[in-house]
Amino acid sequence: MSLAALRRTGSTASRLQRTASSSLQRGLLIAPQPHLQYTPRHSTPAPSPPQLPFGSSAHHAKFHTSTQAASAHAPMALSDLSTRKKVTINTLRKMYEKGEKITMITAHDFPSGLLADQAGIDVVLVGDSLAMVGLGMEDTNQISLDDMLHHSRAVARGVRSAFLVADLPMGSYELSHQQALQSSIALVQKGRATSVKIEGGKEIAPTISAITTMGIPVLAHIGLTPQRQGSLGGFVVQSKTAAAASKLLSDALAVQDAGAWGVVLEAVPADVARLVTEALDIPTIGIGAGEGTSGQVLVQIDMLGNFPAGRFLPKFVKKYADVFEVSRAAINEYKDEVKAGKYPAVEHTYPVKEQEVVAFKQIVEQRKTEIEASKQRRRSYE
After folding, report:
1. What number of H helices and E strands is found in the chain?
2. Which residue among 51, 207, 300, 361 is the one 20 to 30 A from 131 at the CA level?
3. What is the DSSP letter of 202?
4. How many CB atoms lie within 10 A of CB 294?
5. Which of these ranges, 79-83, 123-127, 285-289, has the smallest mean pLDDT?
6. Which residues have a Cβ under 8 Å from the Cβ of 37 and sit 6 or more positions away?
């Protein structure tokens, strides 16, 4: 091989090594690709081992020992990876132009994100509503940006196809455009969101413009803005007069002009929401705004009924299931079976050879003095 060829070989190998190192630093698991593997001239390529699909049962068996597989702390498998195409901002625009309704639902952790994604939801929102439904806080204003980053990362691990949006919480964007940009960048870079949602109309439009100018998609939110419910007199319906509806329209036009890809309309009369939707050239996502909007969003925990009886639900929420009662019944049954000695049954236990049991019994007998001494020491602490 000539000196020039040797240099090319070394250069290519070095480049591939740098690429692999960079991928590992980014936390990416990249399977070797045949067309990227360098084969020196005049050599016979080695046969490539069969590639196991990431998340498949075969892949899991290869990389997890039997001890790990038996652990109660095994990671939730993603064997049923989504096969639908990734939803992008262009996808949402095409849906809007075709008149196809956009579906959005909230998620606050990995399981809820995975569930929404596998159900085929178009947009998954890591909403600051998780403060109340996921963390037990009194209102959304108590959640911090760090909280949102933590939960957004968790949701992102379960979302493979849906468009992921994360809320900018109160206190993370109001002080300056720089603060809003820093918070938005954090939600995209650290929270793994694709877009951010921000509450406010005309007064927040310059902030939306600053964020979108930097290439971060923004979903606006007007009407009832929960972060400002204190100044609105609580969680009350908005835009019930012509003058108030006109202000809502002004807010909608302002966020559209600022570059928002869509706008949430919350708790406004259906007729008002429909007219505002018709006046815009971006999708409207309704929550308590009737069926005339471009799409709908609900809080996942609300629509699944994952809460105790007696909790207040807004009029617009449809309870599609009773997950809380089903879960409570299951946990209650588990408790009763444990108390009665019915669980675990034989099928829930791991076998061992009889001769090993006999040998262990002998060991226990031989260590009887040591065992009794340990019991006495334990009782001395009482």
Report:
1. 16, 8
2. 207
3. G
4. 21
5. 79-83
6. 16, 48
Query: What's the one-letter identity of residue 330?
Result: A
Query: Mean pLDDT throughout 184-207?
Result: 98
CA 266 to chain centre: 22
List, in sequence order, the alpha helices (H) in 190-322: 205-213, 229-232, 242-257, 270-279, 300-304
Specify whether the CB–CB gap between 190 and 214 falls below 8 A: no
Q: What is the pTM of this model?
A: 0.78
Q: What is the dihedral of CA 315, 316, 320, 324, to 10 degrees?
A: -50
**Residue 295 in 3-state DSSP?**
strand
**Rounded to a whole number, what is the distance in angstroms from the first to the last CA of the chain?**
80
Q: 110-118 vs 145-158: helix axis angle to the nearest 10?
A: 40
Place of tokens 């652990």: 71
In three-state form (DSSP H/G/I as H, E/B as E, the rest C), the secondary structure along 16-51 is HHHHHHHHHHCCCCCCCCHHHCCCCCCCCCCCCCCC
Distance separating alpha carbons of residues 315 and 233, to the nearest angstrom:
18
Q: Which residues are catalytic?
A: 266
- Rg over alpha carbons for the chain, rounded to the nearest Å, is 28
Q: Which two tokens stand for residue 148?
A: 């949102």
Would you state the structure tokens that stand for residue 140, as one six-digit string? Answer: 């959304």
Cis peptide before 344 (omega within 30 of 0): yes
